[in-house]
Design goal:
The protein has about 400 residues and is mainly beta. The protein has one helix and 28 strands. The protein has one domain: Neuraminidase (6 Propeller), CATH 2.120.10. Strands 5-28-27-26 form a four-stranded antiparallel beta sheet, with no helix packed on it. The chain has a four-stranded antiparallel beta sheet with strand order 6-7-8-9, with no helix packed on it. The chain is globular.
């Protein structure tokens, strides 16, 4: 039986046309309502490639025409992250364990001496970002998954010097500065996204719950947390739980699930997006010491269909500023600040895996909301802003393309 699902973007629960109570989206107040035509069969789960976990394919209709020109620059096998060097070239990681320097015209040069990674499921090579003092130090920060004892594994973050000027570029003086703790079995929800504060003083790392649920609320470990460190791995004494007995001092916020994007906005505020369980993906304003409730609350439900209470049932937990039902399966996050698309300044952009889309989120006095959704036709793994203001995206999976989005001619 077909029906119309109503999703109210002011955060109020609504009734679908067949009387089914919808999940609370937890958004700030706006008057926008999205009408979504769907059928019971369209609610079936679509498995994310290589992830070992199902994510619901979105049914929200994307815009028909994109306000940008798309140029294919290069292609990769399972690309995961990218960042720009000062000269305009890029660093791109592949999940199986490769790092490339990529020219804006598409040339690819492999970097040697990369770490050996535990590849499989959602695991492997992860993020890459430049050190705040890269111009003088040449240091980069990398994340990947390493094996432990008894078939366990966990993410690590390391710093290394990149010699990018040599004929054969290489990494030197690699030093691990952070470990996901504890290492556990399974091959999902590593997260291991990295971002520096705008002043370059602090390093933030997203650590997923590793599909273990309860550790996201356990203060003795860093699973399901965002951690805050100095760039050398030391723990700042002004962290919210630094002196709290039984808590890891590195923890900045908790109650997260699978963090696949972190970014600072123009006001210096940290945001993260994370995948919900079955639906209920979140965009969160990350507060010092904030608890975002997982697995106690969520806007989604468990994969076996069991309900999870919404955030509005437990006001002590921080609710998302935007939540998605159905899922978009988010990956990558930026706040746009370029000149090529002046109308988008201040907007957030999120890649969509299951939704195969690029999602724009706008902000105003009433809060945040999805403003536009651009159909890309492929799973989008990563989003970055280039030095000249172009938007760059990486497609997921084998043959994933590096695309440059510029204003239409």
């Amino acid at each position: 039986m077909s029906y119309i699902r109503l999703i109210n973007l002011d955060g109020n629960k609504m009734m679908s046309a067949n009387g089914t109570l919808m999940k609370n989206l937890g958004l700030s107040i706006s008057s926008a309502i999205i009408l979504v035509a769907c059928s019971n069969s369209e609610d079936a789960q679509a498995t994310r490639a290589g992830a070992g976990e199902a994510e619901t394919t979105s049914t929200i209709s994307p815009v028909d025409r994109e306000p940008f020109k798309t140029s294919e620059i290069a292609s990769f096998d399972e690309p995961w992250a990218m960042t720009f060097l000062p000269d305009g070239r890029m660093l791109v990681t592949e999940k199986a364990g490769k790092l490339f320097i990529v020219g804006t015209e598409g040339s690819k040069t492999e970097v040697s001496n990369v770490p050996e990674v535990d590849y499989g499921g959602q695991g492997g090579f992860g993020d890459v970002v430049l050190a705040p003092d890269f111009a003088t130090s040449g240091n980069v920060y990398l994340s990947w998954v390493e094996p432990g004892e008894n078939d366990t594994r966990g993410a690590v973050v390391a710093m290394a010097r990149l010699d990018a000027t040599a004929t054969e570029p290489t990494l030197e003086n690699m030093k691990i500065i952070w470990n996901q703790n504890p290492k556990v079995t399974g091959k999902g929800h590593y997260s291991h996204r990295i971002v520096f504060s705008p002043d370059g003083e602090y390093l933030f790392i997203g650590s997923g719950d590793r599909q273990k649920f309860d550790p996201a609320q356990d203060m003795t470990g860093n699973l399901g947390k965002i951690v805050r460190l100095y760039p050398d791995g030391r723990v700042p004494k002004d962290n919210p739980f630094y002196d709290k007995e039984g808590s890891l001092p590195e923890i900045w916020s908790l109650g997260h699930r699978n963090i696949l994007g972190m970014a600072f906005d123009s006001e210096g505020r940290l945001w993260n997006q994370e995948m919900g369980p079955r639906d209920g993906d979140e965009l969160n304003l990350v507060q010092r010491g904030g608890n975002y409730g997982y697995p106690i609350v969520s806007e989604g439900v468990h994969y076996d269909g069991k309900d999870i209470p919404n955030h509005d049932t437990r006001p002590e937990f921080a609710a998302p500023k935007v939540a998605w039902v159905p899922t978009i399966a988010p990956s990558g996050l930026i706040f746009y600040s370029g000149e090529m698309f002046p109308g988008w300044n201040g907007s957030a952009f999120i890649g969509g895996l299951a939704s195969e889309a690029l999602i724009r989120v706008s902000f105003d006095d009433a809060g945040a909301k999805e403003a536009e959704r651009f159909a890309m036709g492929r799973r989008i793994r990563e989003v970055e802003q280039g030095p000249e203001g172009a938007i760059w995206v990486l497609e997921d999976g084998e043959g994933g393309r590096l695309l440059k989005l510029t204003p239409p001619e």
